[in-house]
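So, could you explain this one?
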Amino acid sequence: MLSVRSILLCALVGCGSSSSSPSDGGVPDGAPRPVDAASGIDAPVGPKPSAPTSLLMTAQTATSTSLSWAAATAGSFAIDHYRIYRNGVAYATASGTTYTDGAAPDCQEVALDSPATVYDYAVAAVDSHGNEGPQTTQYAVYGFRGATGGSTWGKSDYSYSLVSPVDWADTTGAPVGGGTDIKVVLPVNTGGGFQPFSNEPQVPIYNLEAGAFRYFTFDIKAEHGANDFFVAVYSRLPFGDVYTWVDNRIKSYATLTDNSWQTVKIPLADLHMTPSTFTASIGAPYGTFNEHPYATLHVTSLDSGAAIDNCGFVLGTGLTGGVYIVANGQPASVGTFNVQGPSITGSTTVSSRSMTYQRTNMYKINIGLNFDQPGGNVFFNNIAFTRE
């Protein structure tokens, strides 16, 4: 016998002998159904909203992260609100297409010797009857994206003296259909590079937690596609710049042709910027580097796919205070590294244990050339860290 609740549901959506199927937006037998908040009865179920798109981090402070996204397309019913997920858990709702998480402590580095906390976000649309659509798959933060009105960047935002004056050009044919691009003139046969660093307006991209992202991407158009560009991401520790040991060649990820836009997408794992677990001890030999004591990290084994590089944090040492790698590393291999930090003295000893390598501080991005390259005009656009 049908209950009053079921009779009301039949009146709304009809009743039949066949079961609903998830493939057509229905709910299978035995599965929980959305409940209409106004009536308290089971909500009608039909095609759900689409996933929102273009989820972006738009701003960040030491304790907050701001997001925006493109609206989802409604299914059978109008979209009522959006549900924000943080680190895979339903966290908040928003009536529009923006949201600021004001309770995200340590989303940037607490200090240069301490990594940030990972906050990964996704968004789903919920319709007026409680039906929730799929979550966003993409998540990105842009350091530069061509837009009407240009940019406030200037030559003072770059730390490479060989670069000729930087300007802005409305070039056609960019992947975004034009817009303002970064134009850099690289000298012929003398090296040089495009090396923005962490002054405004580039932040927060160089100070965020990289754990929420998987790729570094950018668009490039070179006057001479034969240029053998390399890409590296540098960090800064308390005593100054610390450079990565890995340089990746653009030609490994894209084929550049003269005066043609190409998108380059490099896994952060290739840049040694993803967390890696390894087994190591800390002890002698000891020494001093830039007036700070160091000890030696002895790495005996790396987990599958792991990579350790200069300028990363070492977590899980059991020591209080930060520990970071500063020099003499062999990337992605068993070996020794110099480590410094508040807890490192000339006699620090840690027995062999599982530890984790993590990069969070992105002080500089270097897209450069070695000597004996043609150089010339090079345009950049859509510089970002992305999840997909």
In short: The radius of gyration is 25 Å. The chain has four domains: 1-45, 53-138, 144-272+363-386, 276-358.
